[in-house]
Structures are given as C-alpha cells and as structure tokens.
Amino acid sequence: MNTVTRLLGLLVGLVLLLVAGSALGERWAGKQYEKVRNEFLQLRRGQFEQILELAKPGPVPWSPDVETSLARAVGGHLVLDPPQGDPAMRHRIWSFDTAQPGIAAGQRHIVRVEYDTPHSAKLLALYQRVAIVLLLLSLTLLLLLVAVVFLATRENKSSEAGGPPTPFRAEMNSLARLARVSVEQGAELERERNERLRIQEDLNFQQVLLNRALEEKIRLGHDLHDGIIQSLYATGLTLEAAQKSTGTDPKLAGQQLETALKMLNTTIRDVRSYILGLSPENLHRQTFSEAVRSIADTLAAGKQVQFDIRVDESAAAKVDESQHADLLQIVREAISNSLRHGHATEISVRLHESQGEIALAVQDNGRGFDLDRATRGHGLDNMQARAEHLSANVRCSSTPGAGTRIVVTLPVVSAAHS
Question: Considering the entire predicted model, what is its pTM?
C-alpha cells in the first residue's frame, strides 16, 4: 500500500508540473509572439519612413510604378486608403498605417504596409498551439490519475479485506512510462524554443545593421548633394562662361578655364576624402569665415555677384568640428539656391552669438518665391535635415521679388557638448 501511494503521488506531481509548464509555455509564447510582432513592425516603419525620405515619391496617390518600387523596397504590400475593419482582425495582420499628404491642400491619405507573417513568428504560433494541446492532454491525464487513485484506493481496501489480486500494478507501470515520455517531450520543446529564440535574435541584429546602412546612405546622399554636386555645378557654370569668352576675350577665357581646373581638382580631393570616410579636407584647415569665402568664390565663379560676409570668429569657435561642417554645407546650399534659382546679385552671410544661441543668416536680393506654393526640393530638405542633426532650428522667409532669407539658430550649449 505504501509503495502504491508513493508512486501515485509521484505521478500526480509530475502531471501537475507538466500542467504548469504547459500553461507557462503557452503564456510565454503568446507574449513572445506579440513582442516579435511589435519589434518587427517598429523596425519596418522606421525603414519605410527612411525610404520615403530618400525616394521623395510626392503626394498620394502614387503611380503604379512608384507604388511597386516602394513595396519592393520595403519588402511588403502597399494598400492606399484601406477600409477600416474589425480591430481584432487588424491586430492579427502584420501591418502598420502611416498618413501621407495628398494632392489637395490639407488632404491626408492612409497608406497601409502589410507583410507576410515571418517564419519565426509562425514557429512561435505553432509552439503556442502545441503548448495548448499539451495543457489539454495534461489536464486529461490528471483526471485519469485522479480516477486511478480512486480505483487504487478501492483496490487496496479490497486487498486488505482479503479480496482477489488485480492487474493494477501493470497499469501503474504504463502510466509511469507515459509520464516519463511527457517529461522528455517537454525538454525537447524547451531546446527547440531556445534555438528559435537564437534565430530570432540573429534576424533582429541583421535588421539593425540594414537600418544603419540605410541611414548612412541617406547621410551620404545629403553630403554629395550639398558638397560635390554643388561644386560640379559651379564648375560647369565657369566652363560655360569660358566658352562664351573664347571669341571675345581669350585671356579671360584662359583664366576661367584655369579656375575650372582648380575647382575640379578640389572636387576630386573632396571625393577621395569621402571615400576614406572623411569630411572635405579644406573645411578643417580654414576658419569659418575663410571657408565661407572659399565656398562663395567657388559657387560665384563666372557670375556678377557681390558678397558681404561677416563672421564673429569667437562665436564660430564655440561650434565643434561636426557642427562646423554641417553649418558650412547649409551655407553652400543657401548660396547655391540664391544663384541658381534666385539669380541674386547681392548675398550676405552673418554668424554671431546672441542670447545663448549661435545664429547663422544667409540673405539675398534675388527673385524670391511663394513659400506656400513652392515645391520642396533637395535643397530645403537637406538644410532641414542638417539643422535637425545639429539640434538647431531653421527658418526660411521669402517673397516674390523681395529675395530670400535663411536663418539657422542653435544653442551654445549644444555647440559645446554635442
């Protein structure tokens, strides 16, 4: 009787452990599934926003080619203005919504990005279902053991009363084997769960590396547009001026060709510096005012334009090296826009410190434009992106026929400690 009681107690304890393990496993799998889903969608949302910033697809609705390209780039399916269905059903779909501007003023469109369920999430869902099945089987086994205990109690009473023996011991051996197999299966499921977690961590790390590469690509695009492309554009203008002067003033044409050659050599050095992961080398050897003057002379080659450059070098000294480069790229972009689009003949550049802030202002007497109707190109977007990188504010004011003014302000504390 004592042996049977101990064996039954051991079996009941094992089954209770199996029930608890199955319940905890099912709960863990559900939480892990939601965690993987939320992290996946958060990463994909950030990647989609970076792709939109880089591609500039324009207002919604997009053309089929643009929509197909964006879907391929983000690795999902795009749905414009999707119907709002059951929230519970939306929660089971791997997707996120983002609001994008439409063609009409103030109009907003919902763009939904949907993804197929990743294999790792499918495995977690399968593990959750297996845990539920094990939980049900464990409960069933527990009920059977309760019944066996009841029958064993009756059988023991019959044996003590001198009744005939029964095949109860064989049944108990079968139950013991079943309990041992259940424990082994639970251990195998635990090993499989750990392997799936390792695979998911590897996938998340690869996604982080991909996002970093995309951010670096966007930054390099800004640098190329603000630096290399503007220098090449100025070189092209100088060559055009030399071509026009060839027949009338060969000496001037020769000087302009020599200037263009120097500009090309400088651009080549800048490209080599970018390839080596450096900023343009001339930005490090000059003071801020000298660098602004160099940029102005380069961009204004072959044009009739007057510059008024006033820089407080004590204020410029409070700008660190990384901010120094971004501020000069903003100056380059602003001067280039004044010459290319505004056809300005007078441009002023100011940098000073006032009330705990460094202020940079670039103003021209060009054509100006209507801010409400102007389309945002790479110029304004790049200046805004660089200002955000500096934790600075950028303001643009312009009126048709009255020129344009760009003002950038950043805290002195940020300049000293960024």
Answer: 0.39
Residue 278 CA to chain centroid, in angstroms?
24
CB atoms within 10 A of CB 273: 17
Q: Return the beta strands (E) in 329-385 as ranges.
A: 346-354, 357-364
Question: CATH assignment of 305-418?
Answer: 3.30.565.10
How far is 329 from 277, CA to CA, in rounded Å? 17
Digit-coded pLDDT (tens) for 307-316: 999 999 888 8
DSSP state letter for 60: B
Ranges of each domain in the chain:
2-33+120-159+168-215, 58-118, 305-418
Q: How many CA atoms lie within 13 A of 269 on its CB side?
A: 10
Helix (H) or strand (E) holding 22: helix 2-55
pLDDT in tens, 129-164: 887 887 788 778 777 777 776 776 666 665 555 544
Closest by Cα among 416, 402, 332 to 364: 402
Q: How do 404-411 and 393-398 pair as beta strands?
A: antiparallel
